[in-house]
Amino acid sequence: MVNETQHTCSASSSSKSDCGSSSGSESSKDSSRCSTPVLDADRHERLREKMRRRQDSGDKWFSLEFFPPRTANAAVNLISRFDRMGAGGPLFIDVTWHPAGDPGSDKETSSMIIANTAVNYCGLETILHMTCCNQTKDDITGHLQKAKRLGLKNIMALRGDPVGEEWEEEVEGFNYAVDLVKHIRSEFDDYFDICVAGYPKGHPEAENYEADLRHLKEKVFAGADFIITQLFFRSETFLKFMKDCQAIGITCPIIPGIFPIQGYHSLRQLVKLSKLEVPQEIKDVIEPIKDNDAAIRNYGVELAVSMCRELLDSGMVHGLHFYTLNREVATTEVLKRLGIWKEDPRRPLPWAVSAHPKRRVEDVRPIFWASRPKSYIYRTQEWDDFPNGRWGNSSSPAFGELKDYYLFYLKSKSPREELLKMWGEELTSEESVFEVFTCYITGEPNKNGHKVTCMPWNDDPLATETNLLKEQLEKVNRRGILTINSQPNINGKPSTDPIVGWGPSGGYVFQKAYLEFFTSSEIVTALLKVLKKYELRVNYHIVNVKGQNITNAPDLQPNAVTWGIFPGREIIQPTVVDPVSFLSWKDEAFALWIEQWAKLYEEESPSRMIIQYIHDNYYLVNLVDNDFPLENCLWQVVDDTFELLN
Amino acid sequence: MVNETQHTCSASSSSKSDCGSSSGSESSKDSSRCSTPVLDADRHERLREKMRRRQDSGDKWFSLEFFPPRTANAAVNLISRFDRMGAGGPLFIDVTWHPAGDPGSDKETSSMIIANTAVNYCGLETILHMTCCNQTKDDITGHLQKAKRLGLKNIMALRGDPVGEEWEEEVEGFNYAVDLVKHIRSEFDDYFDICVAGYPKGHPEAENYEADLRHLKEKVFAGADFIITQLFFRSETFLKFMKDCQAIGITCPIIPGIFPIQGYHSLRQLVKLSKLEVPQEIKDVIEPIKDNDAAIRNYGVELAVSMCRELLDSGMVHGLHFYTLNREVATTEVLKRLGIWKEDPRRPLPWAVSAHPKRRVEDVRPIFWASRPKSYIYRTQEWDDFPNGRWGNSSSPAFGELKDYYLFYLKSKSPREELLKMWGEELTSEESVFEVFTCYITGEPNKNGHKVTCMPWNDDPLATETNLLKEQLEKVNRRGILTINSQPNINGKPSTDPIVGWGPSGGYVFQKAYLEFFTSSEIVTALLKVLKKYELRVNYHIVNVKGQNITNAPDLQPNAVTWGIFPGREIIQPTVVDPVSFLSWKDEAFALWIEQWAKLYEEESPSRMIIQYIHDNYYLVNLVDNDFPLENCLWQVVDDTFELLN
């Protein structure tokens, strides 16, 4: 009779909650406390499950391969690239293993650390490559343990290239990728998702194509979850390979490796390494234009797009893997033309979620690190509380120390010369500092004609949301209220709003207005007089570098300033102003004056002394307007303060 | 320079979070998860601290004394009285110890169980009296352990009356209240707040007034936290006593015991027991009117009001303790005339918070038990999760069984005859059941002229909030949508709103519209067709007594349907629709048809068979409209369903 069921489950009237025990998210099962709402099923799935779900739903996807950079500066650039290319929605990225580059070390350029950064700091599902030849079991186990500790969940198991000219088997050693696959499964059970390489033309060292297919089958049967192929130049090559694999019983996903030709030399080098032959029809096009980089790249994009279309149209291919060579333009272009680059303006939460398994369920953060999410992750990496999905009150966990300014992902992306152009080769007064803040807000060039595109507290141009407040921000920065963070109040905009929306559709998002700035003690004195009038409407925290702290926060409780209401879910409150963590943030915020700005100048120079003066004497202030349904009163507070001073 | 500080704390820039560790609520210190916001400082304080805070703030208070009733029915009535008198805001109530009534037992009339009910089910701060004479140490320790287990935090330590005519000391036994005080402190350390009795005229058995004062001092120095006095008839008596206490070094609070004269016989009996003498001026007034109860009560109220005014005006008295004799009218009248009866329309949460120490911080509950809060507390009493302050997802803790219908606080307050008058001496069809529901909603008398003031699912008249929906509810009940729970949608009303407000002032409260009802399978079939149109806007759960369950809830997650946003706090979401606990509620909701309604009729009678039919064949449905800022669409859903059926 009742048959329009969507979810149906049956529980006899005597047995309780049978239904619930077979469902619900991980986090809600683990705890009887208010569970972290699952905003995004992706956050709880393993890579192989995500792949399967995409295949089932017919939703095409792509992935991106990168290699570890040679220098720390290049690493900083690569991470920016992860952030930008991550915006297109890759299912995963992978990082190759550079045996010559100390790949398992803690160096900022090692394979391990780059993959760690991608997972933890950029929130990308990441596969770490690992080769096994010429390494002891203990070395390999050590690398795998470290990868697990860092939150990596996926390994591409490879043999690697032998050291000498000739390949010699080692007795008891790891001679083939299959040995590594077996080792991972025996030592780490089902913890890792394992990927292996497939060779559409057969491995160059295999006896023949059929023998190579058998090797591939061995790797899959030893425990590999999916296959990524070597590059190829014709879609038929891949489709034949795929059918041959299926014919011998390989049923796992096989992902074609796509190499958009980006230049004459990179193609030649890759071909040499892979021992592949470039088809004559491609050579015929490329040779005549080999000195015209743009032309070659255009051709490469065309070629890749048409080959990818053929693959996708075959119905056999659900995802495409791109060899990016750490470059952005060609691959992005191919993906956009294929229509699978999906820059989704909707965010699962207002901030980027880390992909570390234990941080995937994190859903509350203090607002202070809004523009420095990597610093927040770094400073909270030792917290073991994230399995509960909540950040919570910071009074228990300690924030990591700030001595690690050398850490490449906390450094500015811009080189010193550029920073000096933006922030002033020479500062003459506090007002010249106000000018820098004002230019950053307005986007206008400074008096030397340079735009200020970043600040010590903000390594990126102004957020779209902050643009809503531009006019007011400009006015107050000019007068010495040096803003570093702000958000407008929002009273129930749809969660799909392109600027302020986040979370699943059908919901409503809210914000309390927030303003955070540095300012002089003179202004603080006036401000405190003004704030008395506003009583509990405005919560404030005011602190100087020595930690003298003034607040009206009740019991030092956190104040939720961003929250969302969604169909069929609990309330989500991803951003809070927390009085306790504010004191940790204060250390960082003040230190940035010195570490990023003052140190650009000679010791004892007037410029440096001006910044040092501000660091020593200014206060860091944050204000929250609790009356979110009314017009934001914080501008009035600031106006009243200036008026009092006049 | 900065001196307008409110909270100030200083932390050197090298030490982190020093500030936080010395503050914050209990719950936020215990856990790094999103802490339960402290809505009400009271909830975390011990009684003696509450008393001190009220004294410091100059906020006068009162407390109420009750004795355990003789019968189970009287117990049910007394509990209703606790709920009503609790609304006036007593600082605490106390329950006397009846040595003859098996006071420590599990009987529904025992002192222990009545105090347990007051704390856990009525949410009242409660003092349990306990006497010590003629009892072994082990008995007393056992009683105290049980009290602690039940969540009682306060003990009034008394000697009690000797069994024989003459008082004889037992060697090694408990001879005086001071022995009990010492025992509590030595066995339970500082767990209990301890109250002792003071005698403004001296204890009748004491050698003299001075000796009795010395005994009192001993009790205080042994660890008592405050004193409640025996009744007295003149304010001078108390004020002199208080000064005498202070003169010998008793500094703890001394609370005058007020006895509003309510009748000639009760006065005579009390005087006999307490061995007090009634002043001649009172006797002179009372004797002539001794047969006029109303006149005596009026006089008693006048007398109590004027004596209380004198006490409060003296500046030495901050709180008044009332000997209610389990009666309501006189005491309430005195309190109202004194202006200290404070019926605060503002609630700390939408439901009454239990005063059990571990449940004080509870801040989320499923909506289903909204009208049966005592049942919810009963069925969740074994959960040990409340220290975290959250109810959370119900998939882990089991709900207690429902076999305990005999439990006096789950029974209807109305006797069988009254229920029959309301719900029908004889039912002729399902429609006559619809009629009962409709009369309950409208408040109109039924065809026999009786108003329906309660239902099996609702032991009280319709809530004010539900009145907002009256018209629509009437319409649908008439047609067989038998509503048992509902709330309108609310999009940000002030937290001080007299009807829907809750929580501290300055906040905003929100609700999603909710409707819960029983209905026939025919209507359910049509309803499900209609619901398809609404997609995710409306979440539904539909279940029959056998547990066949139909829902579109994503991943069986809870849906927050009441939440509040407050200045300087995290979001609070006190009510959720939880798919898993719904199946436990279902058992209770269906069982109430039989236990409370069907069983009013003879077995095999047509009336009983009609209720049994509904029990066996109807569905229990709940609907949530997720789009709270728009007009409630649930009435449209129901209209569409009826239209489809026509």
Automatic annotation (TrEMBL), chains A, B:
What processes does the entry annotate via GO biological process terms? methionine biosynthetic process; tetrahydrofolate interconversion
Q: Name one GO molecular function term.
A: methylenetetrahydrofolate reductase (NADPH) activity
> Coiled coil located at which positions?
none
Q: Which reaction is this enzyme known to catalyze?
A: (6S)-5-methyl-5,6,7,8-tetrahydrofolate + NADP(+) = (6R)-5,10-methylene-5,6,7,8-tetrahydrofolate + NADPH + H(+)
Relate the protein's function as given in its record.
Answer: Catalyzes the conversion of 5,10-methylenetetrahydrofolate to 5-methyltetrahydrofolate, a cosubstrate for homocysteine remethylation to methionine. Represents a key regulatory connection between the folate and methionine cycles.
Origin species, per record, is Podargus strigoides (Tawny frogmouth)
- Record note on quaternary structure: Homodimer.
According to its UniProt record, the EC number is 1.5.1.53
Q: What is this protein called?
A: Methylenetetrahydrofolate reductase (NADPH)
Pathway terms, separated by semicolons = One-carbon metabolism; tetrahydrofolate interconversion
Q: Which CDD domains match?
A: MTHFR (cd00537)
Family in the record: Belongs to the methylenetetrahydrofolate reductase family.
Q: Give start and end of each MTHFR SAM-binding regulatory domain.
A: 346-646
Write down the required cofactor(s): FAD
Key words, A-Z? Allosteric enzyme, FAD, Flavoprotein, NADP, Oxidoreductase, Phosphoprotein
Q: Where is the composition biased (Basic and acidic residues)?
A: 40-54
- Which residue ranges run through the membrane? none
Offer a single GO CC term for the protein: cytosol
**Which residue ranges does the record annotate as region Disordered?**
1-54
The record's section on PANTHER family has: METHYLENETETRAHYDROFOLATE REDUCTASE (PTHR45754), METHYLENETETRAHYDROFOLATE REDUCTASE (NADPH) (PTHR45754:SF3)
Specify the enzyme's EC class, one word: oxidoreductase
Q: Corresponding gene?
A: Mthfr
Q: Which InterPro entries match?
A: FAD-linked_oxidoreductase-like, Fadh2_euk, Mehydrof_redctse-like, MTHFR_C
Q: Which residues lie in Low complexity bias regions?
A: 10-26
Q: What domain of life does the UniProt record list for this protein's source?
A: Eukaryota
